[in-house]
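Case study.
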Amino acid sequence: MSNELLFGDIAALRPRLASKEISPVEVAEALLDRISHVDPKLKAYNHLHPENSLAQAKKADVSLPLGGVPIAIKDVLNVKDDPLTCSSKILQGYIAPYDATVIRKLREAGAVLLGRTNMDEFAMGSSTENSAWGVTRNPWDLDRVPGGSSGGSAAAVGGHEAFAALGSDTGGSIRQPAAFCGCVGLKPTYGRVSRFGLTAFASSLDQVGPFTKTVRDAALLLEVLSGHDVNDNTSARRPVPKYTAALTGDVKGLRLGIPKEYFIDGIDPEIEQSVRAAIKHFEGLGAEIVEVSLPHTEYAVAVYYIVATAEASANLARFDGVRYGRRAQGATDVIDMYGRTREEGFGAEVKRRIILGTYVLSSGYYDAYYNRAQKVRQLLRQDFEQAFTKCDAILTPTSPSSPFKVGERVNDPLQMYLADIFTIAVNLAGICGLSLPCGFTKAKLPIGLQIIGPQWGEETILRAADAYERSTKWHQERPNL
Amino acid sequence: MSTASAVAYEAVIGLEVHVQLKTNTKMFCGCRNEYGGEPNTHLCPVCLGLPGALPVPNQEAIRKTILTGLMLECEIAPRCKFDRKNYFYADMPKNYQISQYDQPLCLRGGVKLYTLAFPKDVQKDPQANANKVIGLTRIHLEEDVAKSAHYETQSGIDFNRAGTPLMEIVSEADLSTPEEAFAYLSALKQILVYGGVSDADMEKGQMRCDVNVSVRPVGQKEYGTKVEVKNVNSISAVRRALRYEIDRQTENYQSGGIQKQETRRWDDPQGQTTVMRVKEQAHDYRYFPDPDILPLRTDIGQPSLLDAAKADLPELPEAKKARLATAYGISDYQASVLASEVALSAYYEKAAALAKNKLAVANYIINETLALISDVAAIPVPAEYFAELANLVDEGKINNRQAKEVLGLMLAEKKAPSAIVAEKGLAQLSDTTALEKVCDEAIAANPKGVADYKSGKVSAINSIKGFVMKATKGQANPQVVNDLLEKKLAAL
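After joint prediction, the assembly is written out as follows.
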């Protein structure tokens, strides 16, 4: 398999597969070979099962939308008969007994499932350092983090160890690592993609989405993943548009909003410069740039860490050693067994968030924290509704900083939480957003541009992103691995 | 002490009843909702609380809860919302229970206590005839937990029950006696069965009852310290447990004792309660809205859940009782016996529809049959046989005395009344030519009776009639014999 194909996107690979110029097995073998050389450095994968992937490749129907295309899966999604760990010791040895809906959809679309990718434990983190299985490295600089929590998926796609990957985004866990690893990451509107089979972190915020090398691939993946699921009460009964057909390359007259609250002190100047240049570029493409205001932005991080931790404290209660997963030995009774199992099984960040979430729901604190956070969440939603009366999409940096060094923020949770400052409000509002490469720092670290759309506005943000991508070359840069 | 013992105490009782709904599938997944079955056979990722599984609310369960609320005259919430109730317990798969906290589906309403709902031995008491209505606080819908079994060195959990739709029906503290509690549960069960929402069998755990009881000096406004009694597994056990607990608390106070707020366990064979735990702090369940389930409107839709529940409203016991009494000309008592069970009234109505004498059918079923077989489902013959029996009497083919005999044989041998009559040669003699001969013999054999009759002692005809009946082995139609004898005696 040529390097041109291996480093290219799905849109370039598919015609070659369809014409039988190259077989799915050859593609899978080429990727597995690259993984065997590159992954010891990146550590993007928690689990690989090459025979299984090759067996799928052998049977792949190349006439299907993703026929024969290898895709990596974040270790938070259930893949039947494969391990599911969420990068946590507490799920060590657990084998998923069913397929997540998105996995079923990928299979039905002919995709070849590659390994499970590393992540922050239970998707809690912004650097993939909170993993029981070790730290994933940034393909552009191995001393730096790939972002998180879907850092393994981002590094796998950014490092060309997969053509695409699935991740989950609760407060930026797709977009921020996509920005850090120089790939495209899309967080769909809440309810667009089924959450059935996605291990829950914060149920009202979680959404599954794709990591891809290009915007057109993101549109293709979203088309496959979207749609109502009877198994997910929060998934929307809405027809799925043909997202690939929305990529007209034309943004003339498109109104792009620039929220003044997102260009704040503390933002890396190189990032601000690149994003401002991207805005100019859009203007050059015929888009109309308007200033908008999202006045409650400063509360987003606080609201997020109340809502998300409250939901997580309940969602993670099921990991108790009674029915599955790891069970601590030597317990004197069942309460002691819970304590020991959870003490041994969960990492520090997960414990911190469970404690925080338990606290904000406690009687006497509920109104001051959880209830008030829900009210502010409503205000954040209204901010966006207001803004979208003036514009069709919003442009912001994806992250205020470029990839930081491994270990640099592990002892400063607050600093770590601020890595998601530009992405969190999108989840709280339930709307959609994507990140795509818009430049590099002097140290050759990728910079991400976030395009935010209204509810069900995926076609608009994909169209804008694609128009930008077509007229720039950032996505063609490759890391030196 | 002597002054304290002079004070009379009264009880204040409130009941929390959990009722498993009779639905095809569980509350939040597609697993079968079925009592019994091999342990851990009705399971899926959802009711096992596996990572990634999501709950999808069962519309049938919501509709049946609304139906229950309508039958009990509750206000139905326009919005159905679910909350998470957080606590760790080995039989709870997610370590939170999906329940309803601040917006229960049904509010207020009540259960009317009627005479027959009381225990038989107090049905003549004033309390059984007061038509008291017990107020309800709320009815909410939640999921049942799994079932634990404890063995010598380990415990087992059967998750078949986990996720069964469960209604919690909370009464006001309106009950004052163990008999009222008995009547409340009987009346509630009757309505639940009427609506087809549950079989409400306490022995099967389909209806479970937590009893809250305190006593206070008569006339005192404030409640006494509340004691919760658990492990009460039948309606009659609720009565026994309450009797014991009220006496115990009263004696305790009268002897100067103090009651702590505690949970006690009823031991039915021993007939006593023992302390399970003294209430420490109130448990903090950290309720919050379940983000996995979108709130839904009960009053909007084509049809709305509320409209669908209304369409399912059955004829309720009160209405049925009134209708049976007027439509069939039976007594109020008979009507209320028949209306006490849907199956029983259906059985009666089926028979009555085919019979001319509907009162006779009611008598056969209530007086003759239910005395032997208390459960209508156990009556071994079709309802049509009762109609046939009544019609045989009505047509003069057998007399009432014979009818009782046929009824006994019908139930014992499960045969149709006409078949029994033919087989046993029970057909009543109404043939006048055959009877005339016997009557002539009777007159000839009873000169004294004839003489008495002729001298004006009309009742003397009975001794002559007795001869005829004896001679015909009781098969003669008494009315026909009477007419014949009167005619013949007049002609003498």
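Observations recorded in class. The longest helix of chain A spans residues 367-387. The first strand of chain A starts at residue 45 and ends at 47. We will return to this complex in the next lecture.
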